[in-house]
Amino acid sequence: MTITLRPDQEQLLLDIMRTGSYENAEEAIGSALEILHSQNEWLSENSSLVDAKIREGIAQLDRGEGVTEAELAAYLARLKAQQE
User: In angstroms, rounded to a whole number, what is the distance separating the alpha carbons of residues 54 and 63?
Assistant: First the structure.
């Protein structure tokens, strides 16, 4: 199989390989595919839970229990500051 990468994808792959975590492109792409497979498996196994959480969030918004965009931005900024 031959795969053609867009220039931005190729640059990302080169950046990843420069970290020294992977010896070659095949190894890096193999790891990415394993992660993608794992994420897809998790989503498939937990789709009903995710759907329930989405429905719960929509119901909360319908009841006016949401936060404003400014409140969310401030909360995310505080979380980011804690990580730094």
Answer: 14
